[in-house]
Design a protein that fits this description.
The chain contains 15 helices and 17 strands. With about 525 residues, the chain is of the alpha/beta class.
Length: about 525
């Protein structure tokens, strides 16, 4: 199959050799034959804008590009839609695969545009199914089990292979480098690529990854139940404000800088008991007993009701203003959909009837996890093959992430350090792993952006410098804008280092901070 693919590429590429790709060359890609692939579109887009199919959303400020779209069908159930956008001029010689969010089901057009503007040929997939609303988001996997495999890992691998062939056909030369960039489910997809298909990409940016998928779904469902199943436990904005002010008061100064942000929530303890309302004195400035219990569960994470062991970590102190604020009639649909269609496989299942402490419910969860985790979870710490071919992995996570517990990233990173430890002490193991894999924890940054911290950052440039020039990122500077004006910069440091104020100069200037392990 590989020989046939190479021949197909050469047959299309040969006429372009030594020439600048043009509109005619773009249309010619419709004739490109790739295994298990049907080309549906090969057209130049030269007007500077693109209207997303099936919507009124128009993306502007685009350089001229060749748009290629098609469907990959490695199984009878598979319908992996993909798009590859190729700069007609000023290609940087590289390919960027981009990730998805949630249960995916759509092409990531915004991310395609972003990387096209940077000069990349760029590729996206819908991960093998079309998006469905609300609690039906995972129904595709119930109805067509092969599409669950497509979603979990096959679609991005297939798209990477086809995208590389299309790039080579269009430019008559292969991409010099291939990168993958994603956050949330996109971060999960990036880690899955590194673990299962280490030859697909030279470098990967995996942001705030949903990689421990089955445990994440359990943790998010537990938060939903704790907060919304009983109306008395719901945490409205006023209650979240009480929690946030208490966290800032207790922990903001721990890093030596009082700036309204918690640098290292791992060192933060909030005494929730002091926030409880006095008997008969309930008000918006305190929490009821059920609200205290719900907040404690959200901070602590999900515990095994039989052993007390942690199943999934909780959210970090300081993140409270960004917690998902829904209600009984409108629960967070991503985990509810997972349990409805993949755990209980029942379209009439009601999340309000579920309780992890109930033996029957817990056993249903455990049986499903045993079946689904080998397919869906990207938690394998053995990155030896990715490392051996020179791959570089940048992972990052915002401490104020309200959807995926930040400690999940630390858990995975530590598992990789332990795997490569080989009898070395922890410091030596860390040094060894950081030659190819670094994790950056971001103070006061929420899920894939936002928050109160420096939520603008460029991980791709840091990755390019590492892969192409051998410059390992010892810090990545983030910035915060208020009213369009940058008012704070701060370094993000490779874990376990944190940004420590030097003691002089503006505390809003990253130049006045040093990355080091806090004492």
């Amino acid at each position: 199959m590989r020989d046939a693919l190479t021949l197909a590429v050469l047959l299309v590429a040969t006429p372009l050799h030594g020439q600048t790709p043009n509109e005619g060359a773009c249309a010619g890609l419709a004739a490109l034959k790739l295994p298990e692939t049907t080309m549906s579109t090969a057209e130049p887009v030269t007007g500077g804008s693109f209207t997303v199919p099936g919507s009124a959303n128009t993306i502007s400020n685009l350089p001229p590009f060749c748009r290629v779209a098609g469907v990959i069908a490695p199984t009878a159930e598979s319908q992996i839609r993909f798009e590859v956008w190729l700069p007609i001029a000023q290609w940087n010689g590289k390919l960027a695969g981009v990730g998805n969010g949630g249960w995916a089901g759509t092409i990531s057009f915004g991310a395609l545009a972003e990387h096209l503007r940077r000069g990349y040929a760029t590729a996206s997939t819908n991960t093998g199914h079309d998006a469905a609303p609300g609690q039906n988001q995972a129904r595709f996997a119930f109805e067509k089990p092969e599409q669950l495999i497509d979603f979990a890992y096959r679609s991005h691998h297939e798209t990477a292979i086809k995208a590389k062939a299309i790039v080579e056909a269009f430019y008559a030369t292969p991409a010099a480098r291939a990168y993958f960039v994603g956050c949330s489910s996109g971060g999960y997809e990036g880690l899955m690529e590194a673990q299962r298909f280490p030859a697909d990409y030279d470098g990967i940016v995996a942001g705030m990854p949903a990689n421990n998928w089955t445990r994440l779904m359990a943790g998010d469902l537990d938060v939903t139940i704790a907060s919304f199943k009983d109306g008395s436990a719901r945490l409205p904005p006023a209650a979240l404000g009480v929690l946030h002010r208490a966290a800032i008061a207790a922990c903001d100064a721990n890093d030596g800088v009082v700036d309204g942000a918690i640098e290292n929530p791992l060192r933060c303890q909030v005494d929730l008991g002091t926030l409880a309302c006095k008997p008969g004195g309930e008000s918006a400035s305190c929490l009821t007993g059920p609200q205290v219990a719900a907040a404690r569960k959200i901070y602590d994470g999900l515990k095994d009701p039989k052993t007390g062991a942690r199943i999934y970590p909780g959210l970090a102190p300081g993140s409270e203003p960004f917690w998902v604020n829904r209600d009984l009639a409108n629960p967070f649909p991503i985990p509810v959909s997972h349990y409805k269609w993949l755990v209980f496989r029942d379209p009439d299942w009601d999340w309000k009837t579920f309780d992890f402490s109930d033996p029957a419910d817990y056993d249903a969860h455990a049986r499903a996890e045993a079946k689904l985790a080998p397919i869906m979870n990207a938690t394998d710490p053995n990155l030896a093959a990715f490392r051996a071919r020179g791959g570089k992995l940048l992972q990052y996570h915002g401490w104020y992430d309200q959807l995926i517990a930040p400690a999940n990233s630390i858990d995975y990173y530590e598992s990789v350090v332990a795997h490569f430890g080989g009898g070395k002490d922890r410091a030596a193991a860390l040094t060894d792993v950081q030659r190819f894999y670094r994790l950056f924890m971001m103070p006061a940054v929420a899920h894939c952006g936002g928050g109160t911290g420096p939520a603008s950052y460029d991980m791709l440039t840091a990755l390019e410098d590492w892969v192409e020039r051998g410059i390992a990122p010892d810090r990545v500077v983030g910035s915060r804008q208020v009213g369009g004006v940058v008012d704070r910069t701060r370094p993000f440091c490779p874990y376990p280092q944190v940004a420590v104020y030097n003691g002089t100069g503006d505390t809003n200037d990253a130049a006045n901070f040093t990355c080091r392990v806090a004492k």
